[in-house]
Specification:
This protein is an alpha/beta fold. The chain has 16 helices and 18 strands. It has an 8-stranded mixed sheet. It is globular and about 75 Å long. The two termini are 27 Å apart.
Length: 506
């Protein structure tokens, strides 16, 4: 039985989402001037099979999909590089065939006032642009107004181009990565409505960065940006890295809401990263295991390069706390030998906490079955990774019997009155239920603008080192050193109970 839970996931990777929209198979997108096919992952499909089918290397696929896990998730999406380079000029010329709107600005596509209903955004979900991009100078200079810019890859020219290319018999599907950011922004709009009802005076400027770091640079050099108190975006790591030194020079904090990469905040004091890093997840596993199973026998299991690196990070956390963990390096292709190596590290007298920091679904599916058999002779508790909840081949009965714990950043609060209010407001405005990205857009907009009103400096204790409660995500922001940016380190823990995942210490 697969693991089925109602659970929202904030986007590490845009292409790994199952439920935000249903892209046409092998639809084409352009990012950073390069063309990619959007491919839906089929059952039992692997990176190797994809590389052979599309005649690209596995390294090229990984490079196109930042943070791609070892185990591909059936039904998810990956980007496959086509090798075609699309110039900005070609893209704009093609888009101009379908709408005169694309001729507004040859150098920079700015999302404009929704109330004027420009043709170029009619094809995106309603509400994608409810505020003017350009503001009057008096309000820009008025300190009673909070000024916030959204810089996100809506890729309006791409949307126009794809719709123009579709066949008459085809239904038009907004590209998956465009839908993701539209959802995020729509959630932000609901938060802005709520904040304004509470008396907040907010000026919002919205830009389409076209998933291009050069466009991000052009946006940041616009004169109105100098007045911003906060920038939400860009999304892609390359764009964040381009924007970071410019924002530091202008002393404007920038929120990165779509990447777990920890290097984004290295020596970038004005970057705030809202997704916990891989290290934060691994630290949460180690600290929870030591707290709840203090006198246990701890075993770390590494089966590939990534999981072995993860074991080293977890082992370091144990050492810092004066605890000890045994690391067992196993060979995924020699299961029987691997099980024997694990067995040799187990204790008959103590609880054995087996930490398996791997995202390889094929390995976990086979190895959990072997660990389950060992549980008749040994007392075993298992800690895994967040993406295990999506594994369809793992027996949920075995996971429950092994008291399996999984870390996660997102919570399940569907019974919250505040969440109900947001869901109803979203449904009234957009005609559908909010996705996980919409909840993220709401949380980030609400938390950061609320903090802005209290104190415009995110680097002090009014913002740092305290818990911020969101709709589906909680946040705890820290600055590791004076030269680094700010990151959210809040990671919760789930455990299987009655054949579903429930939160601990919620």
């Amino acid at each position: 039985m697969g693991i089925m839970i109602k659970y929202f996931t904030v986007f590490l990777l845009v292409m790994s989402s199952l439920s935000l929209c249903f892209a046409q198979k092998d639809s084409v997108i352009v990012k950073e001037g390069k063309q990619y096919k959007v491919v839906q992952i089929q059952a039992k499909q692997t990176l190797y099979r994809l590389s052979k089918e599309y005649s690209v290397s596995t390294d090229e696929i990984k490079a196109a999909n930042e943070g791609l896990p070892d185990g591909l998730k059936t039904g998810g999406y990956v980007l496959i590089p086509t090798g075609v380079v699309v110039s900005k000029v070609e893209l704009k010329k093609e888009a101009a065939k379908s709408t005169e709107d694309s001729k507004v600005d040859d150098n920079l596509k700015i999302i404009r006032d929704f109330y004027k209903a420009p043709d170029s955004i009619k094809r995106l979900p309603p509400g994608i642009c409810p505020v003017p991009t350009l503001m009057d100078n008096e309000k820009l200079k008025d300190p009673s107004y909070l000024k916030v810019a959204f810089i996100l890859p809506f890729q309006l020219a791409l949307v126009d181009t794809l719709e123009n290319q579709k066949k008459d018999f085809q239904d038009f599907q907004i590209p998956l990565e465009v839908q993701v950011f539209a959802d995020f922004y729509e959630g932000a709009l609901i938060a802005l409505d709520s904040l304004k009802q509470r008396g907040f005076k907010i000026l919002v400027s919205v830009y389409d960065d076209e998933a291009d770091s050069n466009v991000v640079k052009q946006i940041l050099n616009r004169p109105e940006i100098n007045y911003m108190n906060l920038i939400i975006g860009p999304a892609y790591s390359s764009c964040v890295k381009m924007a970071a030194p410019i924002c530091a020079q202008k002393k404007i904090y920038m929120v990165s809401a779509f990447s777990k990469s920890s290097d984004l905040i290295d020596e970038n004091p004005y970057v705030i990263k809202t997704l916990p890093s891989r290290k934060s997840f691994l630290t949460a596993i180690a600290e929870h295991a030591m707290k709840d199973y203090a006198e246990s026998n701890f075993v770390l299991l590494g089966e590939n390069e990534n999981s072995k690196n993860n074991c080293e990070i977890i082992s370091g956390v144990f050492s810092e706390k004066g605890a000890k963990a045994t690391t067992v390096k196993v060979n995924a292709s020699k299961l029987a030998i691997s099980v024997d190596e694990l067995k040799a590290s187990l204790s008959k007298e103590k609880t054995n906490v087996i930490i398996m920091p791997t995202e390889n679904e094929a390995f976990i599916t086979r190895f959990i079955n072997s660990v389950y058999k060992l549980s008749t002779d040994y007392k075993i508790v298992v800690y895994g990774m967040e993406n295990w909840k999506d594994f369809s081949g793992v027996d949920i009965q075995q996971l429950q019997a092994l008291n399996t714990h999984l870390p996660a950043a997102n919570l399940e609060r569907f019974d919250s009155p505040l969440n109900d209010k947001m869901i109803h407001a979203y449904a009234r405005r957009f005609g559908t239920e909010p996705s996980g990205f919409a909840f993220s857009g709401y949380d980030i907009t609400n938390i950061f603008i609320t903090s802005l009103k209290q104190n415009k400096d995110f680097g002090n204790d009014d913002f740092l080192n305290r818990k911020w409660n969101g709709m589906m995500t909680d946040y705890y922001f820290v600055r590791k050193n004076p030269l680094s940016g700010i990151e959210n380190i809040k990671v919760g823990m789930m455990v299987f109970n009655n054949y579903q995942l429930v939160w601990l210490n919620e």
